[in-house]
Amino acid sequence: MAAGCSTAPPPARGDALTGRLVLQISPSTNTPAQQWSAGFELRGSAQAGELELTSPLGTTVAQARWHPGQVELLQGGERRGFADLGELSRQLLGENVPLEALFDWLRGRPWPATSHERTAQGFVQQGWAVDLSGLGEGRLTARRDQAPAILLRARLEAAP
Predict the structure, then answer these.
(1) Would you say the pTM of this structure is higher than 0.90?
(2) Cis before residue 148, ω within 30 degrees of 0?
């Protein structure tokens, strides 16, 4: 890619959210159950940002960058472009996880780009039940019951 996201300035480090992600995807008729975990650093915003995933030993596994009109993934020495963050998350995580919304969810609020419904533990947005009850201790849980069901757990290094 001649004009990839790598030419855009990186998001400010002060805006970083860091911690550990665990993703569990229930089996479907075409795929077995999947589970993975990684350290993460999420910088910037839903409009222009960066997500870095690391192994338990601290090795960078994947790095995604985006800004208006461009989304790219650097993984295993290969750089690939995507139409949007949904397509990137399907490739990187195996399912469409709303990466744009994570910026707000990890800060204890609904993503302002779409509607939501409040619940006793948090809110429901884009088909995901977001449980904020552990956010004071840096824990967030989001669950999508639509097949295949997905459970996303995040543990922040420092509470937002």
Answers:
(1) no
(2) yes
